[in-house]
Amino acid sequence: MKIKSAEVIVSSPDRNFVTLQITTEDGLTGLGDATLNGRELAAAAYLEHHVVPLLIGRDAHRIEDTWQFLYRGAYWRRGPVTMAAIAAVDVALWDIKAKAAGMPLYQLLGGASRDGIRAYGHASGRDIPEILDSVREHLELGYKAIRIQTAVPGIDAVYGVAAQPSAGGTRYDYEPAQRAALPAEEDWDTRAYLRHIPTVFEAVRNEFGPELPLLHDGHHRMTPIEAARLGKSLEPYDLFWLEDCTPAENQDALRLVRQHTTTPLAIGEVFNTVFDYQTLIREQLIDYVRSAVTHTGGISAMKKILDYAAQYQIKSGIHGPTDISPVGMAAALHLDLAIHNFGIQEYMRHGDLTNEVFQQSFSFKDGYLHPGEQPGLGVELDLDAAAAHPYTPAYLPFNRLKDGTIHDW
Ligand code: GCO
Ligand code: MG
């Protein structure tokens, strides 16, 4: 089953997405996601100029061989641009193989290990009453696990908190990529943050009781000793996880955090290979693997990382913000359903325009996601709808401390 053509589609319904569509000589099509928030055109150019020409005429069934060819054959390895491009090819080929087999993709990964995929949503608020309202709204939507992010007194703009409620006042979900020619500047003060966050969790636990799984994202802003302190101060509130407590390029730093707290740790949304996890997994320094299928070389590579993690009782917590397209989300859901060491899936819900461009078979009901039973991934791209929303420059914000020093965002 030879590959006849491959097309890179950059569209911007609600936000930018980079999609690869591979077509075989038999007329089957497969989709892959290579969206790299704020750096979309780099991934698109890598695909268009360096990968698409290599795909034409290859056997679409040879997924592992194509993965190794793109990874090893480039000589230059790893990195988010390369791994997002490889992921797009990998996922598109799995889509094609599952369509050829007439099965939903999860069947080719070993079949379902569970009935549904527990998802967590993003509650946020500018103050405690707003965060409590946002949690209530998420509970009404069916969510059975909720991430808590709030503004911090003394800091003007904090990651994960909408500056104002969106139309209708019901959606506080934060869209970090801002469509503008230059990135927005935000501010940061770790001491103010460390003082405030435990008071927020105390209020949320008091209101909603001990059962509800609660999560929090530190978004890479702390040093190891600061992260250790936060983990310790949140222990009474029994978090499901504390995410990205430090910039974890230095995997060894996590030993220090781990020695001081039993709050479970999730790390990895900016990682892109198994090597980024080597120490973290082998020494059991984390509890959840946070990579996105889209940024980590696709289903083939993520399955290997998660199988490795399983030997150490580490579970999945696949990255699923709105900058992962519905194609990337669907790929995550097929994997979530099939693997044994599933933990939780992030699910932020895309906007209406995105859902018009990407028609999806996956569903969200009573807090559980399911990829659906359509052959393949279960996502189709409406090319005309995509063309109606051309690429729009957008950047993630960046942070400065009070004295003007750049800080991790
Ligand atoms: C998350 C992430 C996102 C990232 C975003 C960057 O936990 O979902 O931290 O909100 O900031 O994906 O592109
Ligand atoms: Mg995160």
What characterizes the major β-sheet? 8 strands, parallel, barrel
Which assembly state applies to the chains in this document? single chain
CATH superfamily of the largest domain: Enolase-like C-terminal domain
Strand adjacency order, main sheet: 4-5-7-8-9-10-11-12
The DSSP helix count reads 13
Assigned CATH class of the largest domain: Alpha Beta
Give your account of this protein's structure.
- By secondary structure, the chain is α/β, with parallel strands linked by helices.
- Helices cover 35% and strands 19% of the residues.
- It has an 8-stranded parallel beta barrel with strand order 4-5-7-8-9-10-11-12, surrounded by 4 helices.
- The longest helix is centred in the N-terminal third of the chain and has 22 residues, at 80-101.
- Bound molecules: D-gluconic acid (GCO) and magnesium ion.
Concise overview:
The chain has 409 residues and is of the alpha/beta class. It has helices spanning 40-55, 63-72, 80-101, 105-108, 128-141, 190-208, 224-234, 254-260, 278-282, 298-310, 326-338, 352-357, 383-387, and strands at 3-11, 17-24, 29-33, 117-125, 146-150, 185-188, 214-217, 241-243, 265-267, 288-289, 315-318, 342-346, 358-360, 363-365, 368-370, 379-381, 398-401, 406-407.
